[in-house]
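cron nightly-structures :: item 1 of 1
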Amino acid sequence: MKGVKKENLPSKICIMCHRPFAWRKKWEKNWNEVKYCSDRCRNKKLEDRDYAFRK
């Protein structure tokens, strides 16, 4: 993705917060597997699963 303007980067929708997020260099090798926009959303998924398990 070298030389690509920010507005032309690929984007996805976070499955937790439903907000769009753009490609980042740190996701270069696993962009297809990225589902969450942040650690906060990823951790929220784990909290929701743990809560459901305890019920």
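cron nightly-structures :: done
Residues 46 and 52 are 10 Å apart (CA to CA).
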